[in-house]
């Protein structure tokens, strides 16, 4: 392979409730087509996050029990993760990972689960309700439509310098009120899509990989990678 990228799978041994580990497999699949060797490493409890080692980070979701455990541990990684994000490190965060990058999450039992406030959003919970079902959004920068499945009790409200991953065409999105789904901040992409999101939305996988390649290999000619055709999978 001509290029090499290394991915940090944050708490990959704990946050696998919805099968979102599939996003790592999809990134590996498209990486091969882009002449890239993508390796991955799980960073879990009591393990430091060394931002200099990684070119991409993936942060999946889980249930409240696992999120409470991760919430306590991730405070020790807060500065390193924040530095990685502020320096333009590409990251995909799904559901619980999305919530924990923000200020806090109010769990289903009313407990406050602390995030790391690397992003400015916050999340509350719904009373006796979940947003479940198919969802379609449109990214207003690229015009690309992303198809997926949402299943979340949390309602998230974006903050300073954040914009939604897409505008809701059908479904609920972040909170069912402002027609936004997910979040983008610098090179961080957040979403409530399960499925996993990248399996049905290869253009987003390509975008993340290209961001990482351009960051690591700023002088490289990536024309072939940019011209990779992504076939629809929905």
Q: Overall mean pLDDT score?
A: 94
Largest sheet, strands/sense/barrel: 6 strands, mixed
Poorly predicted runs: none
Report, as a whole number of angstroms, the end-to-end distance: 29 Å
* Overall shape: globular
Radius of gyration: 17 Å
Number of helices: 7
Number of strands: 15
Broad structural category: alpha/beta
Order of helices and strands: EHEEHHEHEEEEEEEEEEEHHH
- Order the strands across the largest sheet as they lie in space: 2-1-3-4-14-13
User: Into which percent range does the helicity of residues fall?
Assistant: 25-40%
Task: Report strand %.
Answer: 25-35%
Describe this structure as you would to a colleague.
- The chain has 234 residues and is of the alpha/beta class.
- It has 7 helices and 15 strands.
- It has helices spanning 22-33, 64-74, 78-86, 96-101, 197-200, 202-216, 223-226, and strands at residues 3-10, 36-43, 56-59, 91-94, 104-106, 112-114, 122-125, 131-138, 145-152, 154-157, 166-170, 180-181, 183-185, 188-191, 193-194.
- The strands form 4 sheets. The chain has a 6-stranded mixed beta sheet.
- The longest helix has 15 residues, at 202-216.
- The mean pLDDT is 94.
């Amino acid at each position: 392979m001509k290029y090499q990228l290394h991915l940090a799978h944050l708490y990959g041994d704990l946050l696998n409730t919805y099968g979102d580990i599939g996003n790592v497999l999809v990134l590996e699949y498209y990486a091969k087509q882009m002449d890239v060797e993508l390796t991955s490493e799980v960073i879990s409890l009591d393990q430091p996050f060394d931002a200099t080692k990684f070119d991409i980070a993936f942060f999946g979701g889980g249930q409240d029990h696992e999120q409470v455990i991760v919430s306590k541990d991730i405070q020790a990684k807060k500065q390193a993760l924040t530095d990685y994000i502020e320096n333009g490190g590409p990251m995909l965060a799904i559901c619980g990972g999305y919530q924990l990058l923000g200020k806090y999450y109010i769990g289903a039992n009313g407990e406050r689960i602390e995030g790391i406030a690397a992003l400015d959003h916050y999340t509350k919970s719904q009373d006796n309700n979940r947003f479940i079902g198919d969802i379609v959004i449109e990214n207003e920068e690229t015009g690309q439509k992303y198809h997926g499945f949402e299943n979340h009790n949390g309602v998230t409200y974006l903050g300073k310098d954040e914009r939604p991953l897409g505008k809701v065409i059908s479904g609920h999105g972040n909170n069912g009120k402002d027609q936004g789904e997910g979040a983008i901040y610098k090179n961080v992409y957040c979403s409530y899509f399960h499925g996993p999101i990248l399996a049905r939305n290869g253009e987003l996988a390509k975008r993340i990989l290209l961001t990482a390649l351009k960051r690591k290999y700023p002088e490289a000619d990536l024309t072939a990678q940019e011209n990779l055709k992504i076939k629809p999978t929905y």
